[in-house]
Amino acid sequence: MAVSNEMTINLVVLGRTQTGKSAAGNSLLGSSDFESHRSPSSVTTCCSLGCSCRISGIIRRNGCELALRVRVLDTPSYPHSGLSKEQVRETVSSALAHHFGEEGLHLALLVLRADLPLCPDESDHAIQFIQELLGPTWKDFTAVLLTHADKIEEAGFSEEAYLHSASSTLLSLLSSVQHKYIFLDNQKSIIKEERAIVLRKLLNFVRRNNYQVLLLKHNKE
């Protein structure tokens, strides 16, 4: 992951249609690599890899500052308005193996809308899909990204109050991934300082996992 004075983290964003998945990927990259807009159908139909510029001031190791690069794989949603589950899984599996087959995956970000309740069926489908993609150690390599955090703030909830009032389904999911979660504001483009906070949290998740990577091989059924 670290080469001389540079570190790269590999991320994949997963989630349902209109959760803000592609927008979250753009926020992490500090770019507009991924198409993202309101639509009556699923916008993303294929996987796409984006890579940030060198980011300074985020991480230090052994007393030295390292430049950070973030690589994000955007994926079609599941469920998808135009693709079957098997098509989405095949597309994402192939892209993971192609882009991260050598370096490995550091984190899968399950994108959920903070302003919508998480139902048991939706959670079960998401977990099953991630398990099929990542295998039995999926919990170690998965974090939850709660988008549209501006909506819950408008409703008068702090992050702590939101979690206190959250459904048992969401709380169980957060517990299963060792409480690796981040709130993200979708109202406006993420500013530099906010992006730095989010990236530091992601790096902390990677550090807690001892900088391990998940090596993915694509096996055709």
From TrEMBL:
Keywords: GTP-binding, Nucleotide-binding. Residues 6-221 form the AIG1-type G domain. It comes from the Eukaryota. PROSITE patterns: G_AIG1. Pfam families: AIG1. Gene3D superfamilies: P-loop containing nucleotide triphosphate hydrolases. GO terms for molecular function: GTP binding. Belongs to the TRAFAC class TrmE-Era-EngA-EngB-Septin-like GTPase superfamily. AIG1/Toc34/Toc159-like paraseptin GTPase family. IAN subfamily. This is GTPase IMAP family member GIMD1. It comes from Oceanites oceanicus. The lineage of its organism: Eukaryota, Metazoa, Chordata, Craniata, Vertebrata.
